[in-house]
């Protein structure tokens, strides 16, 4: 400690030196010392250091003064409170000094100290600062002091350090709004803006009422401007709080728009924009009024006469330019037009629900303003129209596109003129708008391409055009080429190609890169894929040489940007693919360059993709000159760790083997073959799938090569078949491979025979351990092997399919009947029997039926389930043989009904509608006999069968389901409603239009007296919202009140059950509430625009205090809402914080069971994820309750750990959110 004091004393002594360099170096050394975490000062040293630094602020040397200010920042946290008070007191006094330099440096010092003050700093420090600043604000005679005080006050309010002084500060700031100095008024507005987010609701109301009162007194225009500007600022900063005052504010602001003052009108529209963005719901009643005002004032240009005639317009522009008496600098009307257009843009971006009405009212008005003379305003018009297009694309409803189709010709006509203007900003706005239009309505510009081409060419060729302008023009041209048919551009190729070629040769790499993309699309235009040489009357030959030469030049260059290299390779690849027959002489040289690029680490991925493209070309390009070397290089890529490269290489090899097998010598494939076995592994299923697809192609195209590695590949394939991860595309690829393997022609190196393949597949299931490599066989493996066995059976040589099928059946029946067979062997045999029977090759054998029924009667659950599955599969293959038998068994065997219904479900799901049609009536009657079964599992199966059966003939069966709602018992109604859930599939289906008309009737069951019917109705509604939201969007207004009603806790459904000496509470309404909250979560993703988010949040708030399961759901919802609707969440923040805080701070009673501790811990974690999501919302900590809670989290180690970056990123990943659900 004494060493530190001694060192500091030496430095302080040097600071008194007459030499400025000594003083500078000593101050610098002191700053370095203070920045060390380890330094601790005693009381005397603290006092001396503070005194010296405050003295140095008055030093004659500016550099020393600046260093002294920098020293104050680390010093604040190193000294005790009395010294901080001394610093603040001195700095505040100096700030009001007559000396300008001392005043400025003291202001800087005070700002530095305030920035470093901890939030928990004592009231005495804050009081000292605020009292001094309030005094400084009152110094009317010195404006600079006032401005500095207001600046510092804004900084302090922004940090949230003055919560207890808000009232006195507001009282001091309000009089400053009437200051004769404009600068003081503006700074006061800024300070009030910083005060608003963290002040109490009462103070906010006081401020708003004050502004309203002052405005109602009809003050002078300059003061009115200040008050309106203040309103806009507090609305932007305070957000939702202003909502409750809008009824009084809007009429007053509307009234001031009629005052003949351009600046006042501008501020009025800025206030409207802030109201719209911050309080969209509360602004709903005023939208029509605001829209009309915007439409009126967006054309407000009293000093200019617009003329529709183009020539007259040019003349009037010339006259205006030559008029010396009038200057545009005096005209402020453009500010009114700009602010009204920005207000319109805010309306469009926040009210997607009014999109259709915007197309009838706002769209024509914006189109008419495309002729706006002021460049900045015109850019805002384009931006507003682009927002309208983006909102249309986001809504993606067919009805709204109809409203957009009509104005397209008008848009193009208006922009056609603008595209040739010298103004770069205008042209960029045009291209941005046209790009949005092309994205929004594909093909909309096809008829107008001749009108757009001159504008594109002008921007590419005009010498005064900037690089950014050219890039924008090329980017739009690329979008245009992608979204319109090639035939639309072919007639204009002579005009389009030269400027694009010139851009490819440009010295700026970004222009070259963008131009190569366009050139690539132009190659596609010259000859679309699969078209003959001169199809459609267009001959590409005159244009090929021009594109080829510039692309080749870029392809050969090695000293250019990587992006240009890659796009040159890709562009040349498309040329070879589409026009290779015209490049005969140069083709070999190009292919050699591709081979070189394939060997280069930087360009190899692009080269791989390009070779794959060329090899699949319908022109059958001769690649024999590079194939051997290319295959060797491609083989080496399969060893690389780069997954994208590996997948690209496999796709390229598949294309080469498929299309060029005749020119590939077996020896050339060896580098590839040696790498393939290692890729067939469950660690990467997609790579395995693509590898097996390549092996299948080899089996068909190069059988001799494959035979060499079959012994090393097959073990990996079998491991994959036995893997629990195998499904979908990878399984389909293996089935194709095994079938190709069996059908290989015999040769000296023939693949293993069928019996050996079958043995390898089924061996693990015959051992008593039933394991693969020591691990227990997963259920999925049984189904995979059964599918493989059936595939082998169906792929056998044509002369013996029956023999194989029968032998399979005998094998299976022997396994099933043998009492000594392991369970796994019997299950597999049954599944194999089913999969083979699915092809119809087993017929309707009585013996087979007997074997299946015997297995269904087994005592082993796994065997029974497999038998049920097998029966369903065989019925799919031989419907007429098995379906009557199956229906008869369901009727006569009530004890086996559940398993037999599973078989029936398989039949209904897998059979085509045409095959099922004759049997519909008999199945329907049988299902309705069982729809009131007491077993819920059986009822759900019946419902699934009914739903899937309805899809067979929806027009006839859907009305019959609807009738059952009125006639049936509660059990029957619940079955019917569940059946509707199974008619809603995620793919478009013929039933959709019928379902849309009548789903409202089924949703009326949300009002059913029976609680179970209401629960299944909610589940059905959830399914519709998730899979086909279009079915229920129009019904939200009527359905949501019933949905919200089910989220409420009903005391009449809570009962107590005595369990010995204990009493246990049972909530019969819990399942219904859970179903309701799950619906709400789904609606957030699919129907957000149809929700009143504030009303939605009311019910989320109730859920935060509910049962464990429901709280978990509402925490997820809150995290989701924080990202989707931050403004609405901020409005309800104070009410949402309390239940979150309660969850995070609740402790489990000592002596509780382990599960209670685990549940509470999981609740806390989920709540903290929601809190982390809230903390990510901008400006959230301006809320005093949130700031307090955030501070509590930071000071609590456990809670702080839960909001670590890893945890807070958890909830933002949709997959995790869904998995937790």
Automatic annotation (TrEMBL):
InterPro entries in UniProt: ARM-like, ARM-type_fold, CAND1/CAND2, HEAT_type_2, TATA-bd_TIP120
Record GO biological process: SCF complex assembly
Short name of any one Pfam family annotated for the protein: TPR_CAND1
Domain TATA-binding protein interacting (TIP20), residue spans: 1031-1193
The keyword Nucleotide-binding appears for this protein: no
Keywords, sorted A to Z: Repeat, Ubl conjugation pathway
HEAT repeat intervals: 49-87
Start and end residues of each stretch annotated as Disordered: 307-331
Homology family: Belongs to the CAND family.
Name this protein carries in UniProt: TATA-binding protein interacting (TIP20) domain-containing protein
Species per Swiss-Prot/TrEMBL record: Dicentrarchus labrax
């Amino acid at each position: 400690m004494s060493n530190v004091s001694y060192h500091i004393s030496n430095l302080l002594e040097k600071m008194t030196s007459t030499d400025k360099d000594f003083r500078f170096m000593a101050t610098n050394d002191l700053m370095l010392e203070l920045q060390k975490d380890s330094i601790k000062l005693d009381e005397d040293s603290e006092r001396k250091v503070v005194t010296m630094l405050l003295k140095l602020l008055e030093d004659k040397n500016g550099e020393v003064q600046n260093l002294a200010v920098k020293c104050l920042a680390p010093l604040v946290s190193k000294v005790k409170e009395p010294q901080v008070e001394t610093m603040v007191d001195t700095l505040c006094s100096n700030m009001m000094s007559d000396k300008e330099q001392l005043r400025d440096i003291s202001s800087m010092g005070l700002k530095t100290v305030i920035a470093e003050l901890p939030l928990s700093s004592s009231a005495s420090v804050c009081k000292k600062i605020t009292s001094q600043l309030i005094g400084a604000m009152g110094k009317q005679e010195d404006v600079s002091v006032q401005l500095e005080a207001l600046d510092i006050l804004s900084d302090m309010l922004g940090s949230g350090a003055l919560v207890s002084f808000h009232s006195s500060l507001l009282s001091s700031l309000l009089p400053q709004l009437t200051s004769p100095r404009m600068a003081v008024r503006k700074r006061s507005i800024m300070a009030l803006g910083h005060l608003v987010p963290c002040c109490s609701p009462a103070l906010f109301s006081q401020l708003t009422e004050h502004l309203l009162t002052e405005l109602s007194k009809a003050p002078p225009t300059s003061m009115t401007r200040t008050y309106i500007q203040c309103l806009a600022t507090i609305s932007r900063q305070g957000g939702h709080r202003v909502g409750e005052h809008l009824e009084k504010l809007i009429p007053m602001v509307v009234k001031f728009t009629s005052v003949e003052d351009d600046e006042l009108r501008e501020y009025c529209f800025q206030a409207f924009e802030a109201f719209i963005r911050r309080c969209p719901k509360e602004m709903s009643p005023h939208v029509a009024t605001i829209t009309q005002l915007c439409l009126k004032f967006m054309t407000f240009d009293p000093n200019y006469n617009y003329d529709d005639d183009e020539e007259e317009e040019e003349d009037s522009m010339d006259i205006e330019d030559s008029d010396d008496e009038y200057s545009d600098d005096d005209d402020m009307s453009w500010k009114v037009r700009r602010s009204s257009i920005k207000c319109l843009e805010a309306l469009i971006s926040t009210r997607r629900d009014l999109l259709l009405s915007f197309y009838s009212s706002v769209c024509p008005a914006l189109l008419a303003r495309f002729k706006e003379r002021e460049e900045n305003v015109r850019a805002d018009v384009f931006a507003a129209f682009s927002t309208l297009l983006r909102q249309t694309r986001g809504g993606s409803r067919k009805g709204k596109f109809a409203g957009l189709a009509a104005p397209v010709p008008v848009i193009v006509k208006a922009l056609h003129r603008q595209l040739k203007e010298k103004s770069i900003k205008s042209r960029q706005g045009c291209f941005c708008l046209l790009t949005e239009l092309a994205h929004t309505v594909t093909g909309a510009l096809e008829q107008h391409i001749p009108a757009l081409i001159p504008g594109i060419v002008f921007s590419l060729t005009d010498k005064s055009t900037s690089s950014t302008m050219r890039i924008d023009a090329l980017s739009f041209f690329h979008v245009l080429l992608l979204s319109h048919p090639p035939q639309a551009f072919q007639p204009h190729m002579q005009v389009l190609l030269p400027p694009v070629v010139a851009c490819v040769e440009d010295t700026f790499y970004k222009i070259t890169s963008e131009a190569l993309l366009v050139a690539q699309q132009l190659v596609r235009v010259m000859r679309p894929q699969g078209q003959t040489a001169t199809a459609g009357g267009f001959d590409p030959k005159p244009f090929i040489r021009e594109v080829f030469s510039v692309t080749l030049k870029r392809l050969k260059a090695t000293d250019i940007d990587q992006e240009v290299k890659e796009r040159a390779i890709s562009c040349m690849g498309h040329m070879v693919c589409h026009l290779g027959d015209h490049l005969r002489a140069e083709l070999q040289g190009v292919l050699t360059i591709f081979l070189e690029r394939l060997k280069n680490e930087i360009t190899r991925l692009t080269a791989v993709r390009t070779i794959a493209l060329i090899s699949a070309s319908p022109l059958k390009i001769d690649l024999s000159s590079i194939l051997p070397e290319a295959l060797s290089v491609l083989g080496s890529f399969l060893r690389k760790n780069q997954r994208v490269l590996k997948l690209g290489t496999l796709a390229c090899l598949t294309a080469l083997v498929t299309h060029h097998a005749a020119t590939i010598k077996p020896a050339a494939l060896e580098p590839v073959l040696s790498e393939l076995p290692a890729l067939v592994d469950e660690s990467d299923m997609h790579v395995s799938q693509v590898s097996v697809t390549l092996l299948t192609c080899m089996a068909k195209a190069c059988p001799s090569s494959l035979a060499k590695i079959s012994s090393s590949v097959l073990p990996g394939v079998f491991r994959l078949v036995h893997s629990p991860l195998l499904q979908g595309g990878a399984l389909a690829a293996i089935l194709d491979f095994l079938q190709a393997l069996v059908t290989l022609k015999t040769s000296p190196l023939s693949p293993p025979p069928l019996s050996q393949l079958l043995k390898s597949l089924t061996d693990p299931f015959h051992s008593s351990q039933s394991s693969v490599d020591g691990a227990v066989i997963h259920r999925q493996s049984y189904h995979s092997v059964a599918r493989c066995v059936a595939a082998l059976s169906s792929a056998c040589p044509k002369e013996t399919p029956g023999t194989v099928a029968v032998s399979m059946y005998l094998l299976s029946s022997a396994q099933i009947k043998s009492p000594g067979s392991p369970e796994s062997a019997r299950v597999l045999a049954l599944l194999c029997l089913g999969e083979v029977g699915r092809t119809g090759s087993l017929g309707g054998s009585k013996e087979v039926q007997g074997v299946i029924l015997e297995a269904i009667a087994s005592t082993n659950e796994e065997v029974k389930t497999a038998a049920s599955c097998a029966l369903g599969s065989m019925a799919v293959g031989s419907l007429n043989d098995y379906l009557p038998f199956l229906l008869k068994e369901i009727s006569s065997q009530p004890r086996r009904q559940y398993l037999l219904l599973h078989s029936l479900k398989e039949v209904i799901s897998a059979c085509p509608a045409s095959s099922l049609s004759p049997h519909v009536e008999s199945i329907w009657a049988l299902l309705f006999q069982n729809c009131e079964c007491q077993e819920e599992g059986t009822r759900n199966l019946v419902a699934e069968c009914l739903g899937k059966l309805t899809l067979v003939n929806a027009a006839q069966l859907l009305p019959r389901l609807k009738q059952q709602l009125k006639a049936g018992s509660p059990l029957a109604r619940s079955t019917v409603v569940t059946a509707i859930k199974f008619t809603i599939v995620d793919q478009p289906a013929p039933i959709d239009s019928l379902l849309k008309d009548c789903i409202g009737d089924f949703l009326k069951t949300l009002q059913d007296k029976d609680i179970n019917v209401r629960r299944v109705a909610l589940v059905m509604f959830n399914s519709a919202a998730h899979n086909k939201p279009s079915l229920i969007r129009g019904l939200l207004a009527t359905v949501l009140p019933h949905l919200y009603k089910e989220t409420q806790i009903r005391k009449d459904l809570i009962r107590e059950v005595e369990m010995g000496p204990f009493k246990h509470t049972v909530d019969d309404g819990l399942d219904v509430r859970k179903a309701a909250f799950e619906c709400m979560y789904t609606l957030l993703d699919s129907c957000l625009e149809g929700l009143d988010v504030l009303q939605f949040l009311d019910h989320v708030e109730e859920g935060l205090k509910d049962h464990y399961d429901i709280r978990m759901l509402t925490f997820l919802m809150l995290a989701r809402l924080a990202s989707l609707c931050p403004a609405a969440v901020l409005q309800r923040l104070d009410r949402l914080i309390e239940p979150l805080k309660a969850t995070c701070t609740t402790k489990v009673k000592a002596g509780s069971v382990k599960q209670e501790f685990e549940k509470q811990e999981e609740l806390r974690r989920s709540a903290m994820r929601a809190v982390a999501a809230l903390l990510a919302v901008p400006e959230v900590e301006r809320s005093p309750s949130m700031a307090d809670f955030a501070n509590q989290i930071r000071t609590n180690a456990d809670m702080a750990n839960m909001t670590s970056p890893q945890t807070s990123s958890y909830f933002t990943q949709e997959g995790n959110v869904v998995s937790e659900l």
